[in-house]
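Hi W.,

Here's what went into the run:
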Amino acid sequence: MVMKISEGAEADIYLVDLLGIKCIMKYRRKKNYMPAALDESLSLRRTRSEAKAMIAARRAGVAVPSILLVSKYSIFMEKIDGTVLYELDERLPRSVLKDSGKILAKLHNSDIAHGDFTKANLMIGDNGSLYAIDFGLSAQTDSVEEKALDLLLLKRSLGEGFKTALDSYKRVALSGSAVLRKLEDIETRGRYQERSLVTAKE
Amino acid sequence: MAVLGIESSAHTFGVGIVEHGKILANCKSMYKISDKGMIPSKVADFHSKNGWRVIKEALDTAGLAIDDIMAVGYTKGPGIGACLRTGQLAARAISVKYCLPIIPVNHAVAHVEITKHLSRVKDPIALYVSGGNSQILSLSDALGFRHYYVLGETFDIGVGNMLDVFARAAGLKPAWGSTVAHVAEGGSYVPMPYTVKGMDFTFTGLLTHATKRIGKERIEDIAFSIQNTAFSMLCEATERALLLTKKSDILLCGGVAQSVRLRDMLESMAAAHKSRVHVAPNEFNADNGGMIALVAEKMLGAGYKFDLSAAVTDQHYRIDKVEILW
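Here's what came out:
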């Protein structure tokens, strides 16, 4: 059984049966518009770093889907039943906002920059815990700038709720003040300081 | 009655005349870029010397006299301050002398709107790429007013500026992105830094890398790779925006929309998602007065109340601050 359930910008998500276990296969499809060598190197690199980051995230105590198998352009992972924050219309509960900040801080403490840390990539499982998903643009790095960009994306995505998330981020993050200083620096790079803070869906 | 629009945000002084959405004239004079780029005061001097000639040429082309004009629009920003002020001054002079309403227009809104108007698309996402700007946009009613929401944008410089700077560093003449495209023919791909963050992207890392490779690798290969890496980044970010918004039309606008290579890549991406790409004729992709006149007419039609004291310039006039009244 192989069923395509969604199309992302860089990968397609399939529901597959792996040795009797229902799981998610994330397959990086070929991007015909790019030079083939660029496409190939991006796909390989991203698949590998995504798998590594997910394993590192789990080790850091962040809830992520567990990985079952990794091939050249595909990752097979546990299927989480739940809802992506982006799909929720009501105001996010404080506990969820806090957890989002805590998750990001834990990732950063293990030198993982998520690369696309928005409501589209946070999922409330039916079991109640908050999962970080889609590590496709993540990087293993101690770069303060990369970490600050994660915060910037979260800020833009959460809007008002960001304050709550930031409080718990600061409590958990080891080098939070350096990242925050960098965030201020990025935001004062002229044209971005006034960018409106909503997501496209709202 | 027609509306006259003046564009002067960078090297082009453009004058357009529009009546009921029909473009009657779209004239321009362009400052010739030497191999040193643009010196704002020199470009502004050029505009103030040539501006009146272009305004007259536009009236002649449209077969109209100044009495047939009912309002004058101009580019408020974003753009180069000194250049913006020449267009603003011309518009104010016309407004005061002939008692006409004066309408400040956002340059980026104008690029998107003219392309939307000419291709008759209702609700697209837009990839706006020019020398100074690179943004992915979509109309939104969030924050209580209708505006172009910035889904993604460059964190540093515009893609056109990047290609121009590379062309200058490589000694290509004229120092334009299109010259890079020309040299890139016959080149092959060598790896270069590729930076996409969600739907945002950065170009300076790529520029620095490519500039350092000059002399170490074939110039064709470097040109091919800087161009294709940058365009791949734009296409990937746009692909992400397309799938996130679930829309099916993509507008490509701004000066870099003239690139045949970028169009091909974007169309190839869109085809995979059964979406369509819409591009205006090149005279409307490059900076032009027609688009300013068009938006000024739309603003007037939507009840924009003109006010001479609001007729200022703003170098950093962001597209997401503009209320779309129509």
